[in-house]
Amino acid sequence: MSNSAQIQPLQLVECPRDAMQGIHEFIPTDLKVEYLNLLLSVGFDVLDFGSFVSTKAIPQLRDTEEVLSRLVFDDTHTQLLAIVANERGAQMAVGHERIKFLGFPFSVSEEFQQRNTNSSISESFETVKQMQDLCGRTGKELVVYLSMGFGNPYGEAYSPEIVAHWVDQLANAGVKIMSFSDTVGVANPENIRALYSHITPSYPEVTFGVHLHSHPASRDEKIAAAWESGCRRFDGALLGFGGCPMANDDMVGNMATENLIAFARKKQIPLKINIDKLHEAQWLATGLFSRYH
Fold this sequence. Notes:
The protein is α/β, with parallel strands linked by helices. It has a single domain (3-287), classed as Alpha-Beta Barrel (TIM Barrel). The protein has helices at 3-6, 16-20, 29-42, 64-69, 87-94, 110-117, 121-138, 160-172, 189-199, 219-228, 257-266, 275-292; strands at residues 11-14, 46-52, 79-84, 99-107, 141-147, 177-182, 207-214, 233-236, 253-254. The protein has an eight-stranded parallel barrel with strand order 1-2-3-4-5-6-7-8, surrounded by seven helices. α8 crosses α9 (189-199). The chain is globular and about 45 Å long.
């Protein structure tokens, strides 16, 4: 058996939805469909493609259902993830057979939870429980993103113990996939390792992923810290497009998928990626985001 065959695979979650949602000028539906179909042909494990949220909150993604109806799945193993912010959105998402994962942003910051979903942390936890029940009844899987997972920019209390408390509550509610989310780019190798070592060993039944926003210069060290801490599910976006407006630094974008792929190659971690299609997607992404970003 080769060394690469003995290594647990790295699961790639590509997040064009995160890259597109903050763009003010509406990206034409035809262009979204072209880009997403190309990403499907690349062969990512999961594609975070759209959202079922208020069109007033995120007008850029008001065409999610039309986009979904035009995606082509003839030659892909990629599964779809859609972001939802309330039970109504979850009900809409589970009505689509092609959607496997529902992603819900759950913040350990009261301020950010209100801004993001117009609800308190306690109200959002009740929503999570309702969504988890809905997913169980419809054959879907809930992914909870623990935003502000590495720090809080609002002056509220933050510690790994606070994150651990909510991980415990979510695990007891039956959530099997959680992703620590660095919403404002404050993660570093030290606090990544500290968070994983403090929490993940107690929950072997839970898959813990990571959604990092990062300055280009610190991407590789953050990926390495998460991998070495046992993380195997990584979110990224081609060329590092997107990010959070509250980062207050234009260079703090999404984790670049290219960095994740380069890390996997360096470590001889197997990936199911069509490199030719990846290069096509990179070329299209460059034009798309240069024009509309």
